[in-house]
């Protein structure tokens, strides 16, 4: 069964967060955030997988989805769970008015790439991309003041 994250499913999302990240301290606030879209796959015994991301407003009046994370427990892979999670995420975005979705994955993550491509994804056409992280609470970050 695939459940959409909501205030009524915080306990299930917390179980997913603990399983896949090792922590669940901020789940209640995460679930209440209006931009958050998240789903958890569960059966009677365990959390099988989850995905989460955001609906992003754009200055041209449209919106798009950002899939930040999709993970299925190793013991549950190759059963359609990832496909179901991704489909649920995309359908929720369409209902909310999103016209496109983006995500990043590792070049060598062939299972994820096959899933995304089998569901209609295409590689970004703007050429190679580079990802950067900023630690905003790090005093060593130049140009960031408090």
TrEMBL record:
<dbReference type="InterPro" id="IPR000182">
    <property type="entry name" value="GNAT_dom"/>
</dbReference>
<dbReference type="GO" id="GO:0016747">
    <property type="term" value="F:acyltransferase activity, transferring groups other than amino-acyl groups"/>
</dbReference>
<feature type="domain" description="N-acetyltransferase">
    <location>
        <begin position="1"/>
        <end position="141"/>
    </location>
</feature>
<dbReference type="Pfam" id="PF00583">
    <property type="entry name" value="Acetyltransf_1"/>
</dbReference>
<protein>
    <recommendedName>
        <fullName>N-acetyltransferase domain-containing protein</fullName>
    </recommendedName>
</protein>
<dbReference type="InterPro" id="IPR016181">
    <property type="entry name" value="Acyl_CoA_acyltransferase"/>
</dbReference>
